[in-house]
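FIELD: query
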Amino acid sequence: MYHGIINVYKEKGMTSFDVVAKLRKICGQKKIGHTGTLDPDAEGVLPVCLGKATKVCDLLTDRDKEYVTVLRLGVETDTQDLTGNVIMEKDASGLAPAEVTDVIRSFVGVQEQIPPMFSAKKVNGKKLYEYAREGVEVKRKPETITIYGIDILDMNLPEVRLRVACSKGTYIRTLCHDIGQKLGVGGAMASLVRTKAAGYAIEQAHRLDEIAAMAEQWTLGELLQPVEDVFKDLPGSCCRSEYDMPLLNGSKLPAEAFADEVPENGTSFRAYTADGVFVGLYYYCADEGTCRVRKQFIDETTKQLIRK
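FIELD: result
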């Protein structure tokens, strides 16, 4: 079984689940999960976790992302992108580039965003797009998101090409819609490419045909990123040899169990055996004066080999 993360380039016309289904056939294993849905018409970075790496799926999904999108001004659709039915068209020829620039820049920062009806977000256990297909409009609560930055890459009105760095939960199509609303002419997303997700960039992404070819040559392991790379920004410490067994068992440990000083209260750090095998994340609990496991990533087979 393969264990690790592959930076997949999701192509247009595929759902994120399609990518996972194809990888299960390519890799010959079921334990695979993706880290954040991309719409079928969107393309770009989709980190996919295999084997024990599936434990970090939720952590990767929560990380920041970057997109390149084309905003079409002067049109609104029921899906907030150009795949939907047009519900309003308005002449946008009177817009001045300076006005458009100012409005776009006004969206940088923390804000409330209402999720679109055509999305996979669940309300009362049902996905919003399922309600939308039934013609039912559901009241949605606004979500707090952060737009870290918007760069205008090209402006050829009524279209504007943007690079957007944002937090989890941001809907770029809704951002395009809201910009159009603020300009008074409407707006819709014409295209979307995810260029970064959870630290993975589009320049290092691999298409499925390339992954399949490497699997046939038994070189697929070269594409796998180890789970611990996800946490390379966190401090790490090796356990002293006498504490290896409790570490593998996920037990609470005294701070002196680790060779290096543990981080401040509540801060996660990478925990390794005395021989440098990555076990998982621990954190120091000041109230108890002990280090507790946050999440383990070592598989049972490796545990057994170490115990021997």
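FIELD: remark
The chain has a mean pLDDT of 91.
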